[in-house]
Design brief:
Blueprint (H helix, E strand, L loop, with lengths): L2 H14 L2 H8 L3 H15 L4 E3 L4 E3 L1 H23 L2 H4 L3 E7 L3 H6 L3 H7 L3 E7 L13 E5 L7 E9 L1 E5 L1 H7 L14 E3 L8 E5 L2 E5 L5 E3 L2 H9 L5 E4 L4 H6 L3 E3 L8 E8 L6 H15 L8
Parallel strand pairs: 3-4, 3-5, 8-11
Antiparallel strand pairs: 1-2, 5-14, 6-14, 7-12, 7-13, 9-10
């Protein structure tokens, strides 16, 4: 038995709440994960986990061993970060969740530069708009747009982006430009509709917040389709500035209602609380913060 690997697996199982989630996070089969923990229990001569068909829970011995094991692994990882290859060349798999389009536009094209710096790190992206349970899904890092609601997660703000309302020049030539959010009733809108529920558009006026329920012939839950629809002259869209940054710069689309833009949207690197942040994840967060700072649409203000 590799005792250190078994201890790490035991910690993963406890923190994720299941053998299957721990196995996914370490890219091994569930039977192998269970076998490691069973071997650890046999080695210690004590039951660490109570197993039922629906749940896992720590025994009294398991709770005591877990607290000691977390300190042990944390101290070991910290030592590896200070000495030898751990400090200059972190390694291992990072599972990162990121929204569609954002990863393709702003992360994937810069990963070659990251891999030159850290050739022993492997990055796996889980592309979804859905909020994942990071622990249960074995995810190390999430790139999150907007405010964080889950207090069990830690977030570092690494970018900001304005919320813009845009349309193609051809659409504006045909239908005119809205001068206030109230004018949107007379316009065709391309509507973001996650889970089948059209999302309202928020603006900021002199008297406070303004909320508009957009109207239009086309709804989608995909950001790439929103961009395609606007470029096809189908109407106005209300979206994070990063989605249309290139088109605004090239004048393929034109921002409107600039005086009513709402508070910029924060973009954060999110990871589970209650555990030490691995060096490999920290260097990826630092890298993302660095490259986003070079993008005018994402730079912190």
């Amino acid at each position: 038995m590799d005792q250190l690997a078994a201890i790490r697996m035991f910690i993963r199982v406890v923190e994720s709440g299941s053998f299957s989630a721990a196995a996914r996070a370490t890219a091994i089969g569930q039977p192998a994960a269970s076998k490691q923990v069973t071997a650890l229990e046999d080695h210690l001569g004590a039951q660490l986990l109570r197993r039922t068909s629906r749940s896992l829970s720590l025994t009294e011995a398991g709770q005591d061993f877990y607290e000691s094991a977390v300190r042990l692994i944390s101290d070991l990882d910290a030592a590896e970060s200070r000495v030898g290859r751990g400090q200059s060349a972190p390694s291992g798999l990072i599972r990162m969740t990121v929204a569609p389009v954002f990863g393709r536009l702003y992360i994937v094209p810069r990963l070659p530069e990251f891999f030159v710096r850290f050739p022993d790190i492997v990055v796996e992206t889980i592309v979804t708009d859905r909020a994942l349970n990071l622990v249960e899904e074995g995810v190390d890092l999430a790139i999150h747009n907007g405010e964080l609601q889950d207090s069990a997660l830690l977030a570092r703000k690494i970018a900001m982006t304005p919320i813009v309302t845009v349309a193609s020049p051809a659409y504006l030539k045909r239908y005119g430009e809205p001068s206030s959010p109230g004018d949107l009733d007379k316009h065709r809108c391309v509507i973001y509709s996650p889970s089948g529920a059209p999302r309202s558009w928020g603006f900021k006026g002199k008297a406070g917040s303004i909320e508009v329920q957009p109207k239009g012939n086309f709804r989608t839950n995909d950001a790439e389709e929103i961009r395609a629809a606007v470029l096809s002259d189908m109407g106005l869209a209300h979206a994070p500035g990063w989605l249309f940054a290139r088109e605004i710069a090239s004048k393929a689309v034109r921002p409107v209602l600039r005086a009513y833009e709402p508070t910029p949207l924060s973009i954060s690197a999110v990871h589970p609380a209650g555990r030490r942040l691995p060096t490999k994840v920290r260097v990826l967060i630092d890298f993302l913060a660095q490259i986003f700072a070079q993008q005018p649409t994402l730079a912190m203000r």
